[in-house]
Amino acid sequence: MGHESVGEIIKLGNEVTNLKIGDIVAFPAGLHNACGKCYFCINEEEVFCENATFTSSRGYGTMQDECIEKASFCVKVPDGVNLAQACVITCAGLTVYKGLKIAQPKQGDFVAIYCIGGLGNIAIEYAKNIFKTKVIAIGSNKKSLEIAKEKGADYIINWKEENVDYAIKKITNNGVAVALVTSSTSDQFEMAYRNLKSVGKLIAIGLPKAKLEIDIIDLVLTAKQIIGTLVGTRKDLEESLDYFSKGLINPDLVVEPLIKAPEYFKLMEENKLHTRIVFDFNK
After folding, report:
1. φ, ψ for residue 23, nearest 5 deg
2. What is the pLDDT of residues 89-104, one digit of tens each?
3. Backbone φ and ψ of 267, nearest 5°
4. Quick one: pLDDT at residue 59?
């Protein structure tokens, strides 16, 4: 909680030279600090540093009027952008962008996005507008699937109404190049693996409390890949925000005053949210 945020700098430490008062900054998924010396930090994968700390681990994170952040972990937000939308880029957008960046689909490849919703619909825009792929959106919530179509998905599959394996076979002939799975249920991961073509990549983003059973012989003979991804780094966030500032990404959201937070947390628990919610402390 409190890890997707942007804010204005109102005070600086004496040794800070890379920022100034009034700058608008963000953090990659609320990353607050890392050691800067380990293998992961040296190789620009600081989110895996054993000593990394995240804003959300400190109580309410940035869901407060003021907070103290380390200057070297602040990423400048481009001028002139919608700041509420920029909040969404800092984790949701960043996470799916990182997954696609790892997968590196080629222009025209089929990318299947499983569990269309808050993450999935942002992923559609990155897949379409940045990587120039053909997108198959797979989900069960009709409202979310309608939004997916508006976001540019080339094909829509409602897994409650259609046989996903058959539908993907019909669309692609031999499977998808990339499956991006944001689901919290293991059956979506198994479905995604089945529908990869040879040398296809399954990018695991969702966090189901389950094990994934894979036919190892099939894995070897088809050279499919299963890749987990946590979230992006500061460099990835800079890239994500740059694409956003160019108008290539347009996150859907609703801006509300903080007092409405309990109401929206309840809707989230009931699986009734179809968009991102940003709380504005000035409302």
Report:
1. -60, 145
2. 998 999 999 999 999 9
3. -60, -40
4. 53
For the chain, which domains are there?
Answer: 6-91+232-251 (3.90.180.10), 93-228 (3.40.50.720)
Integer Cα distance of 158 and 112 in angstroms: 13
Helix (H/G/I), strand (E/B), else coil: 57: helix
How high is the pLDDT of residue 193?
Answer: 97
Query: Does residue 125 contact residue 249 with C-beta atoms inside 8 Å?
Result: yes
Residues 85 and 244 sit within 8 Å (Cβ to Cβ): yes
Give the whole-angstrom CA distance, residue 100 versus residue 248: 15
Helices 164-172 and 186-194 meet at what angle, rounded to 10? 30
The predicted-structure confidence for 132-152, as pLDDT tens digits, reads as follows 999 999 999 888 899 999 999
Helix/strand/coil percentages in the chain, nearest 5: 40, 20, 40
* pLDDT at position 42: 96
Residue with tokens 């694409």: 243
Q: pLDDT at position 1, please?
A: 58
- CA atoms of 41 and 266, how far apart (whole Å): 38
Average pLDDT over every residue of 189-213: 94
Average pLDDT over residues 189-205: 97
Return the closest-CA partner of residue 102 out of 4, 223, 233.
Answer: 233
In the chain, what is the straight-line distance between the N-terminal and C-terminal CA atoms, in Å? 19
For the record, the structure tokens of 80 come out as 């002139």
Phi and psi based region of residue 220 (left: phi greater than 0; alpha: psi -120 to 50; beta: remaining): alpha
- CA dist., res. 86 & res. 75, Å (int): 12
- The tokens describing 84, both together, are 């509420």
State which amino acid sits at residue 70.
K
